[in-house]
Amino acid sequence: MARKRIQAGMRLPGWAWLALCVLAPLVLLNGAVAFLGETQVPLLSLSFLPEKAQALGAYTQHRAACLLEGHPPLEPLVTEAERRHRLPPGLLQALVQVESEARVHRISPAGAMGPGQLMPGTARMLKVEDPFEPVTALDGSARYLARQLARFDDVRLAVAAYNAGPGAVGSQVPRNGETEFYVAKVLTAYARLRPPPAPAARSAVTARPVPSAPPPSSNRSSARPPAEHARPRPR
Predict the structure, then answer these.
(1) Region (Disordered): which ranges (predicted)?
(2) CB atoms within 10 A of CB 54
(3) What is the pLDDT of residues 37-47, one digit of tens each?
């Protein structure tokens, strides 16, 4: 009799089983993004589910290749990407610091991937096959940032477009509760990381000193003799 009561007490209604079937994949997806992507995601978050699933797929394909080889230091790769795409020195490095804290395998709560935090759609547009591979990922981020800089001709607006998309940026940084703070962080890091301005070049033509008047000649032969006093005549 007691056994039947225990079994009856463990039965779940149909709606509870349905809820578990729906919530289990959601919790697993968000948990995997939080653990593997080194980020914080609410386990019951319903936002950006397709993007997070695509990011996990790209991460799985990449991780199998890099477990043994590892990755080179990011700073020289960032510097080379800035030079290749004619970005202001230090700007891409500042952006990477804010986006991912220079973590190659980071996945954001929105599904953005890699050091430059490329969204899956942006990575496809830029033809970046592996957003977690530093060389190709940084090259894609540099190309995308260079496009925004060429379009807006303003560092603040270009950084805002990188975050919010160029369609959301007009003549000023959009105030959506995120982008304005993002731009401030990137510009603060950029002011710290960019090289100091070169000192002003000195003029090639130097002023010549004005020649001083020659000192008076000490040669007495060329000097006029002083006048003699007239002597009185003898009477």
Answers:
(1) 195-235
(2) 19
(3) 999 999 999 99
